[in-house]
Amino acid sequence: MGRPSSLTAGVAVLAACAVTAANAQVSAGDGGGEGGTPRAAEVSEVVVTGTRISGAAPVGSTVTSLGRSDIDVSGAVTTTQLIQELPQVYNLGISESSRGQSGGSGNITYGSTINLRGIGPYTTLTLLDGHRAVPQGTSGFAVDPSIIPTLALERVEVVNDGASAIYGSDAVAGVANLILRRYFEGVEANVSYGAGGHYSERQAGLIGGYRWATGQLTAAFQHSDHSALSGLDRAFYRGNLTDEGGGDFRVVQCNPGNIVVGGVSYAIPAGGVTAANRGALVPGTTNRCDNLKAEDLLPRQRYDSGVLTFNQDLGDRVSLYGDGFVSKREFTFRSGYAASSLNVPGSNAFFVAPPGLTPASETVNYSFANDYPRPYTDGFSRSYEGTLGVSVKLPARWEFSADYTYGFDKDESFAHYQSYAPALTAALASSTPATAFNPFGGSNNATVIDAITQGNFDAPGQSILRFYEARFDGPLFALPGGDVRAAVGYEGQDFHVAQGLGVGTLSAPVLTTRFFARKVNSEYAELLLPFLDAGNAVPFARKLAVDVAYRHDSYSDVGSTNNPKVGLDWSPVESLTLRGSYGKSFRAPTISQIYGNTNSLFVQNYSDPTCTCIRQGVARSGASLTLRPETAKTYTAGLDFEPQFLPGAKLSLTYFDITYENQVVAYLSDLTLLQRENLFAGTGLIVRNPSAALIAQQVAETNFTGLLPSPVTLFVDGRSFNLGKSVTRGLDLDVRYRLPTDALGSFLFDLNGTYLTQYRTAITPAAPLLDQRNNIFNPLRLRVRAALGWDRGPLSGNLFINHVGSYTNNLSQPAQQVSAYTTADLHLAYGFGEQSSARLVRGLTVSFDVRNLFNSTPPFVNIAESPNGGGGFDPTASNPIGRVWMIGLDKRF
User: Fold this and answer.
1) Residue 823 to residues 776, 786, 799, 851: CA-CA distances in angstroms?
2) In whole angstroms, how far apart are CA 702 and each of 378, 453, 669?
3) Cβ atoms of 319 and 390 closer than 8 Å
């Protein structure tokens, strides 16, 4: 697997390649012309996400579009933030703030994905101008939308409907298409700065474009970053929640710690304990501490991305198109203090036993907070990709297009101040004070500490994607409603992944790299049948169209699959369209799910309801070679109503039904697993008080480098399995009304929301389907975003209201009703215009944004702290940042 070694190679790809002209679209409400979207005359055909038929809208499905104007007023610093403003997108699983749900354990570089409906982070396919993009992560598991800067986006289109018949794997819940700006003319620069309590973010970008008679070239670059947000800076994040009626989730691994002999705890007094004052050890006493209070709720992130698009006509019939991007993201995440349950033998030079006891060894629950710096993880994600294609107009209004994509990604995560178990074990056993480790509250030799912190954990990963596509598209014959049109095509994917794991010590690292490959061959066909249109309408049938699609995918490692889809549009009257769709979708398990991100053991803290405490356990990651593809059946039915008596108004209502089976699930990062322990009976995934032989076997089979608790009282098998099934049903609503006035300017009202009527899941194949709708860490019943916009001449303003309905924390005993969470965002802008007499401000727009205008605090949630979120609030449903003030400047030249 040859690979370029730096971003220089990515720049070379950008210079040679660029994106599909067929996907350049004019978004409703966005003006064309200079510095913006191309005029309609400059776009030969319009392709909408959700169909392969050029120039046609998807039949039976709706497309949610975030156009250039939506991007400008959102105040989002990254594309991920922009898309997560949609109520249909949930923050579950793979994000920088929440990693406790499915897929989160592999997100060790703190990227993000799009999770439509909340049914899984891998169930939404993210496209780049209609074609696949190289995935990110150390194992290449998903596309992070923020590889594309917001400045380079013309529009984001989201289809909330199963689309595997159109696009293949991963499109179970829907598709998000990142459409790039092209036909831009001139130069535009922008800068913005935002700050809140102990938090800041910055952004700066530049876009330039040039048009000529037969083509265009547009290039954009953007830098953005945000600071870390520490738990120390948010009072609502803490371990002891008893002041609000919650639990005390502080741990017993403290400094000074706790001696445990025969199951009895003895708190080590402040200043430590020696043989001289061991009388201070009182049976039944326990020190408790909040080791995770100091961890980051958000990591520090830095993004640098560049994008290039290109079009060139070669005569009247042949056109070249292309795109490319290069992206680098760097992160730093500060963890809580290292802690463990240490087995201290009697040979230890500092050994102290409680009065009257002479044990051969004892357990000391201990935190290394005073011994060495707080551990942290840093790393990067670097990607580049280029696409080059050709489009040829054929006789009889047919068209042939073909393109080739090459994408490369390298991610790496490196952990600092990792404990090295062999050195600690030797230091605990040493009878010499100079080489022994003292866990009884006294000082330690710097040489001993240095040896203990020599543990190495380095996880590099690399992905290479080669994507091929060829397509024929055109009319077959005429029906009363228009031409019957067809699209047939072939896609090929050649995907290579290299997964590395560095263990051992910093001075003598041991790096193991595993190489995997996957090939996919796919054939698809789609047929559009327009039976009726306005020109030949009959009573109660002004329009009637049917779309049928079929796709066959053959994988080199997980077999083949066939997926159909049918969509229907029917307009009984001019202002009303009824629509529906049915399809089958699938998702092939990722390479990392089959072969494991790593083959390791992880010591983790679990919330245990049997003792209302935090229990240290050991979880295993690794291969699961028998995984099968996931399958789904999707139904939608809806209507679009544009009343003639109220011009500018539109109402869309959609019912969706998704039955999702053979779901690949892994519980490696789920630290609330014991709250549902009864549902895992008979699976072997949870083992309490595992035998010494079982733990020894796990250590022998894995690359374990941490500190095992002594004794190990909990083992969790965190590998991936085909266990789950879910049934998701609900309604999407979008109401929009634009009201122009002569005296007061133009007003825009918009209400977008999703309401779940049902969400039932079965954790294992034998488990019953249980209602999980509106339960914590599951899709919530109600999510809404409302907007009020106004513009009059150079001045404009937008107010957004974001609402998450109340829900149940069923992980608390008794179950807790979590309050609703509502925030408001404000955007104000003043544009001086291109005709301003003052050259300095000509083309300048000044903007002012406030996110979380009223500084709403996340509602109280009775859950324990963890490295994946929690500790008095729910990071999947609320934002810990608070109010952020932002100012921005945008200048066109």
Assistant:
1) 19, 11, 11, 8
2) 23, 20, 18
3) yes
The neighbouring-strand residues paired with 131 are 128
- Encoded tokens for 783: 């999510």
Query: Coil, strand or helix: which one is 534?
Result: helix
- Cis peptide bond prior to 564, omega within 30° of 0: no
Give the tokens for residue 121: 């982070």
pLDDT of residue 15: 35
Selection from 136, 140, 105 nearest residue 516 by Cα: 140
What SS3 state is found at 267?
A: strand
- What percentage of the chain carries pLDDT values higher than 70? 94
- The Cα–Cα gap between 609 and 238 comes to 19
Confidence grade of residue 6 (pLDDT, cut at 50, 70, 90): very low
Asked if the model's pLDDT at residue 32 lies above 50, the reply is no
Strands 186-196 and 199-212, sheet pairing: antiparallel
| 7-233+298-335+378-417+457-597+626-669+720-892 CATH, one of 1.10.150.120, 2.40.170.20, 1.10.3730.10, 3.40.50.300 | 2.40.170.20
Average pLDDT for residues 540-549, to the nearest whole number?
A: 94
At 84, give phi and psi (nearest 5°): -70, -5
Residue 22 has pLDDT above 50, yes or no: no
606 contact partners, CB below 8 Å, separation of at least 6: 614, 615, 616, 617, 671, 672, 673, 674, 714, 716
Sign of torsion over alpha carbons 268, 270, 272, 275 = negative
- CB of 846 closer than 8 Å to CB of 827: no
8 Å CB contact between 303 and 112: no
Question: Which helix (H) or strand (E) covers residue 448, if one does?
Answer: helix 446-452
